[in-house]
Design brief:
Elements (H helix, E strand, L loop, with lengths): L1 E11 L2 E6 L5 E5 L2 H21 L15 H7 L7 E9 H8 L12 H9 L4 H15 L1
Antiparallel strand pairs: 1-2, 1-4, 2-3
Helix pairs in contact: 1-3
Length: about 140
């Protein structure tokens, strides 16, 4: 499911700062606009993933037009120069599969002949198991 939150992108001397006013002023930055946007997606995904995992309440996003970058800058006691407000979107579940979930070791048993033939063919056991599990899950 796609999540979307407004973020304020403040232009700074060495890049951009990004603030999510709805998420307790969650912040990140980047040296370029592209990097700041990528970091904003990662930051948003991390926040939402952690909140969901820890059963924390997740605030509803504000409407884009209600976000006031000047007010936020004053509350954070910072200067405002160039800025813009943009929605940052992420599918948290998809993002987590690629970035947050680490591999775990599983022990399994297979017949000796199957092991021997697979080794002779140079088959990657972990990859085959992952592919088989994904295919099985999609078929359910």
């Amino acid at each position: 499911m796609l999540s979307a939150y407004p973020a304020i992108f403040y232009k700074e001397e060495n890049g951009y700062s990004v603030i999510f006013p709805d998420l307790n002023y969650l912040a990140t930055d980047g040296d370029t606009l592209e990097q700041a946007l990528a970091m904003a997606v990662d930051c948003l995904a991390g926040y939402l993933y952690s909140a969901k995992r820890d059963n924390e309440a997740i605030p509803k996003p504000s409407e884009l037009k209600t976000v006031d970058p000047v007010k936020v800058a004053k509350e954070l006691d910072t200067e405002t120069g160039e800025y813009f407000v943009n929605l940052v979107t992420v599918d948290v579940d998809d993002y987590a599969k690629l970035h947050f979930n680490k591999s775990i070791k599983k022990t399994l048993s297979i017949p000796e002949w199957l092991n021997r033939e697979a080794l002779e063919k140079g088959i990657n056991f972990s990859q085959v198991l992952q592919e088989a599990l994904v295919a099985k899950l999609r078929s359910l």
